[in-house]
Amino acid sequence: MEDIVAIEVRLRGGIRRYFLTWGRVFDAVNPTPLIDCISTHIRKNALGGEPESISICKSLQEARDEPYFFEALFALSQTKIPRGDGYDGWRAHMRDRLESGHELYFLGKGARSEELL
To answer: Which pTM does this prediction carry?
Structure first.
């Protein structure tokens, strides 16, 4: 998993919504703890339907056409990820923030996400 990941939320009827967030704060490889955490917070956004599935995208490119993709990527990029001694504390802090509903960036309702794929 990457440091920043795109998350696809598929709604009933096939419409897709996307989010950006931190990828490795729960586990460096297993996406399940991250998906479990954010599943409790995605409904706070005006998704336009009932979520049917949540998955981690293989690449940020899958979400690149959404209206607020670049704003979210810019916001996440402003946070320096420390390496070495400071990493574990940073990771715990970001995990706590995600668990409280922060650090999850909704990318909006783009024309592409309205397509039935």
So the answer is: 0.89
